[in-house]
Amino acid sequence: MEWTGVRYAEGPTVEVRGRIAASPERVWELVSDIGLMPALSAELRSVAWLDGASGPVRGARFTGRSSHPSLGEWETTSYVVECAAPRVFAWAVSDPEQPSATWRFTLTAGEGGGTELTQWMRLGPGRSGLSYAIERMPEKEQKIVFVRLREFERSMTATVDAIKGLAEGTATLPIRRGEGA
């Protein structure tokens, strides 16, 4: 992907795809299980449903705790903004109207079987930890955004690969907990 010259206010996106030799229903079980995600992430440390929710439904909220060597530790509340099993699971971080980021898994049944899994994310338009870094070094905004998007791309690729391994039965947990993004 090409992000040279991209600014935060432009709402840059990252997307990765993978083919999985498993049904969309099996892949859905994994991508919609927020409790699994910390085991697949170098940044996400823990998640928990809020308001008595026990699974993904539109409007449900969950909290996530994350850490990054350059950004420190933080906690966010996310809002499920799309949920249609076994096709799409998406959430907005911090504010569903002005999210700091929006994340989405899309599942498409493959011709001849299997599933095409896409993980997508968009920065902004709301403020995030990245906004504060940019305010401290505005002359480096494009580099800051570029580096973060590359981190997301690597992380998302590893997540899709891990889900593939779990869905196809070729991997077990923990997959990559603690690796750098």
UniProtKB/TrEMBL annotation:
<protein>
    <submittedName>
        <fullName>SRPBCC family protein</fullName>
    </submittedName>
</protein>
<dbReference type="Pfam" id="PF10604">
    <property type="entry name" value="Polyketide_cyc2"/>
</dbReference>
<dbReference type="InterPro" id="IPR019587">
    <property type="entry name" value="Polyketide_cyclase/dehydratase"/>
</dbReference>
<dbReference type="InterPro" id="IPR023393">
    <property type="entry name" value="START-like_dom_sf"/>
</dbReference>
